[in-house]
Amino acid sequence: EKLYIGAAWLSDTEPQIGWPVIFDETPPCAISNLTAITGVFDGQVKLSWTSPGDDENNATLNNAVYRIKYSTTSFTFFSSTESYSVQFATTGVSPNTQVSYVIGGLYAGTTYYFGIITRDDAGNWSLWNKDGNTNTLNYASAQDLSPPAVSVLNTTSANRQLTVTWQHPSPDPGDIDKYWVYGATFNFVNISDENVIHYSTVTYPMKQTTIDNLVNGRTYYFKIKTFDKGDQGNGLFSIVLESILSVVVSGIPKISPATNLNAKHNGNSVSLSWTNSSDSGASNFAGYNIYRSSVSVLGPFYLIAKPGKVVSYTDTDGIIASQVYYYIVKSSDTDGSESDSSNIATAIPDIIAPEFFSIGQLTSRDLGKSVAQLNVKIVDDRFEKDDRLGKIISLSGKFRKIGDTQENNINFVPEFVSGISEYSGFAELNFSLITIGIEGVEYYLEAKDEVNVSSWPVGGGWLKVEPTKILPEQKFVSPKNPELVFGSEAQEVIIRDYAGNELWRGDSSGGTKLIIWRGEDKQNKKIESGGYVYEIKTKDGKKRYGVAVIVK
Length: 552
Hints:
This protein has no helices and 43 strands. By secondary structure, it is mostly beta strands. Strands 30, 31, 34, 35 and 36 form a 5-stranded antiparallel beta sheet that branches. It is elongated.
């Protein structure tokens, strides 16, 4: 240390006479016993040394820094002017304290050489040297462990094919190079066992392989070995290490099943249909096998037919009109091996479709309502008329402006409950959801039981509700029908009392909407009961007259 008397510093550059200042220019002493040993985990080396003091080997290190350099080639000198690999802070360390630090992320199996220097809180750096007496143990091989075995495996089946997938070991050691996939038709113990096949080599980070040309219906067993990296040409890796065999996974290649199996009970027969197997065009595709159960959805199922490559079949073998039947379809290959089952189709005996027993009819006067209502009654029989043994599963409906594609749901009051044999209530069309135009609206209803579908209008399609041409369909404005809807050709309507006074006027907004009068005057106040004259001016300039009666 140097003591300067008679000078102090007002700033970094300006001295002031009269204050003593002490400058620390003594660095920590050089570390002479840096020791490296192979670490615990892959790519780790553990370093240890004896801590220096703040000044040479005196005083505690506070707010100090260690700086470490490492290299795959040996070196004998390290100073603060050189590049370094790791730097970390330390404080409160007394001289001659044993210190250790773990370096990770190194190339596993590679030998590394290390040097270390120390900086005190005044910015003084030590030096580091290696010779025949100091720092002779400053090198070690980074830990290189055998990689972990894969522990999570799965197989996916296809026609003459299995795809094996797995998860990388966890934690991932970071130096996995590849996987070897072994397989056999038995649960093998060693890869040297007879008939164990090395099926594929998969480069990390891929984690699946597809194995072809297998035999459908046969069980295959698979295990995997993990290999870490060896010398990659830059000399930074050690020899290749391998894991033990993984846990076993098995799979059975199968031809794909049919899908979307549907069954309809016809009383004395059941009609079946399905979608082709995705392997129906394969060279080893033979056709379909049909199984039936009359006990439950859980079976037992018995083979009843082999119809070949068709996608429909009619079962007439002892079908009882009141019996429920369950069916599955399996694909078969040319070796006789079968696919998994299709979905289970239930043939419920129900000969009669739901019937729209009574239903109201919307008319043009309903076009003026915010919500139009239809009386609806639907019944469902099963074997004969009026047996009421059926179950209505769903009731729905749609409405829209004629010529429009935007459809709206019809609501039912009371709300429909699935599983009943009879429904009575109202179908409500909320016309506030659309703008009623001169085209009118159209609607339909649909009811489904467990087997059949019925629609209103009968035969399907949409039931149209179109306005009249000029005159309103009704002549009365009443609480039940409080709107007077004029025809699509009406351009303007004037309502007058019998004295000729104008009470209300409406127009068709350029011919795009219907004119609707709700028994109100120009101030939207309800007018008294009685007869009133309407004058209609049509789009071609003609006039028509009539009388409307308000009944309260």
